[in-house]
Amino acid sequence: MAANGEIKVGSAAGRNGLPKIQTARQNGICHDDSGPTVKAQTIDELHSLQKKKSAPNTPIKGAQAAFATMCEEDRQKQQLQSISGDLNEARRWSSGGPTFHSGKERSDGSWVASLASLTRETGPKVVKGDPARKSETPRQVSHVSHHHYFTPAIDVSDSALKFTHVLYNLSPAELYEQAIKNEHGSFITSSGALATLSGAKTGRSPKDKRVVRDETTEDDLWWGKGSPNIEMDEHTFMVNRERAVDYLNSLDKVFVNDQFLNWDPKNQIKVRIVSARAYHSLFMHNMCIRPTPEELENFGTPDFTIYNAGQFPCNRYTHYMTSSTSIDLNLGRREMVILGTQYAGEMKKGLFSVMHYLMPKRQILSLHSGCNMGRDGDVALFFGLSGTGKTTLSTDHNRFLIGDDEHCWGEDGVSNIEGGCYAKCIDLSKEKEPDIWNAIKFGTVLENVVFDEHTREVDYTEKTVTENTRAAYPIEYIPNAKMPCVGPHPKNVILLACDAFGVLPPVSKLNLAQTMYHFISGYTALVAGTEDGIKEPQATFSACFGAAFIMLHPTKYAAMLAAKMQKHGATGWLVNTGWSGGSYGSGSRIKLAYTRKIIDAIHSGSLLNANYRKTEVFGLEIPIEVEGVPSEILDPVNTWSNKKAHKETLLKLAGLFKNNFEVFVNHKIGKDDKLTEEILGAGPVF
């Protein structure tokens, strides 16, 4: 791999002088020339060929009118006839593919297109045109074992002979049943939540994420040094897509979720998730916005589709692959493929990356933040990396929760992107986090937790499987959630940092340039594990407080943030939830009670009217006093007994900020460098 993150690949040569396998092609479609095809359209029919039939099957004649009153069974029959008609139309483009069952499953034909192969004649079908278009000549519908299915005229591959049950938008209760019956490691805990295992991967795999670099993304996306976007080409994406679709079509059943992103109705995105596990389906049921039955009936074609074949690995010998895991985004095709990881968070954050691309094109700012609203309608955004207190401080009993993680800031205000919350569970207690504790009930997914084998009571301190234990639940499980999850324009933008160096003040008021600088920096400091003897804090920078998910250059999001703050009169704040009186090991962490008092003063507006003075090096405006907070801790230098050590540590952190910002220095914002210069000038000055 090159230093800039690009992967260099070469051409593979044949081995041992063996002749290459030649595949016949016609109009760009591969043909299987291995042998004659079977004269059967289903596996059942193939088996029946061994025996003589005593009586022919009787087709059902006639079809219901499109808007006639009908029972649920007849409605499903008609939908299946529609699918059959869609597939019949598709035969002009490709032939061969699985037969789809419907129990309590939707069958509008559009997911048949979602499960279609695009390259092989011997694979699943491709549907062209409106997937909801009804066939003028409905095909035969037969009955077997109380299921409805259609019998398209296909006979060219084994995949065309099997049934694939599509379990469409199942309820949590139905998904519980599917998980308990079919997925090893799924249990109902004492609180009613569903405990599941995500397999070998218990967290995201950012080094295995790929984005197709093509004419759609070449100029728009952030590529190169510092970027999370590792490129792949269209052909490699199609190889992985085919592998995922083939795997899903090989299963007896797949789960399909049709849901929404973004509570702003004018900018809502329709998403479809095709997955192999009930765990994944329930997770996305909780995390995305759940459609009403009426919205589901009129859902139509999705704006974006995920193929989650995480139980099946990618081919490590495929170009651009560096492991058996690959998470691939194709923004031109509006598709995502997951191979080699069952960690459900890949779906959530993959869609967040998509929103980071789609929303700015509509002049809507996508944000990795928490968001709450006071009873007077004042909205606050909370940015912060892991361990900074973002979830704790944005969850406030005196304020309404709009969302805990992903938001949009558009022309009408803010909106939550998601329909649920994804909370960390390690060391969770009812006393510290009562809302999260109480949200872990029936319908909630618990990932990788450990529980008592008899009582099924969860031990949230246990790290046997992973420290990254999680709970995914619908946002309405939080008592003070604002429904729908929208609010007016923010009044305050709060950037949280857990500074383990102990030199940043507990609170600073930022001007616009400083807000952009610290937003782009995305700083916090983590304490290294003690097992290797390292006690020094380690600075962590993540652009826009979510570098792993952004698609455009960080300065573009920062410029949009500054423009919206200026237009709507929002104030920026830097709040340190870390150490005071010295670095980690010598000082002490700022008390949560003091931080809450600071946040309360920001919400009330009283901190705007305080008297301020400027610090050295970082040039931060710090208040002289805050009600309920000892005045001596507001300026960090007052809390250090060794002033020389304080100055050295302050300069050390300033140097880390400058080094981190080097990657952004050469990026111009706007038609000239004025804004870029303002941002650079807002950084530390030695």
Structure commentary:
- Belongs to the phosphoenolpyruvate carboxykinase (ATP) family.
- Residues 1-36, 89-108, 122-144 are annotated as: Disordered.
- GO terms for molecular function: ATP binding; phosphoenolpyruvate carboxykinase (ATP) activity.
- It is an enzyme of class 4 (lyase).
- Keywords: ATP-binding, Cytoplasm, Decarboxylase, Gluconeogenesis, Lyase, Nucleotide-binding.
- The strands form 10 sheets. This protein has a 9-stranded mixed β-sheet with strand order 3-6-11-12-13-15-14-9-10, sandwiched between helices.
- The chain is an alpha/beta fold and 686 residues long.
- 24% of the residues lie in helices and 22% in strands.
- 48% of the residues are buried.
- Among the domains are: 167-364 and 422-477, Phosphoenolpyruvate Carboxykinase, domain 1 (3-Layer(aba) Sandwich), CATH 3.40.449.10; 379-409 and 489-682, Phosphoenolpyruvate Carboxykinase, domain 3.
- The longest helix has 19 residues, at 72-90.
- The model is unreliable at 1-16, 18-40, 46-70, 77-107, 120-156 and 528-534 (pLDDT under 50).
